[in-house]
Amino acid sequence: MSKKINLEHPRDQITTIISRIYKRGMTTTSGGNISIIDDNGNIWVTPSAIDKGSLRASDIICVQKDGTVIGKHKPSSEFPFHKAIYEARPDIKSVIHAHPPALVSFSIVRQIPNTNIISQAKHICGPIGYAKYRLPGSEDLGDVIADEFKKGYKAIIMENHGTVLGGSDLTDAFERFEALEFCASTILYGSQIGTPKYLTDEQIEEFEAQATGVLPEMESVHYPSDEVEKRLEICKIVQRSCQQGLMISSYGTVSMRWNKNDFLITPTGSNRWDLNIHDIVQIKDGKREADKTPSRAAWIHQEIYNRNPDVNSIIMTQSPYLMAFGVTGEYLNVRTIPESWIFLQDINVVKYGDHFRKNNNSTIVDNCATALIIENDSVIITGDKLLQTFDYLEVAEFSAKSIVLGNSLGQMVPINDDQVEDLRKKFLS
Question: DSSP H helical segments within 296-385, as ranges?
Answer without folding.
Answer: 298-307, 320-328, 338-344, 362-365
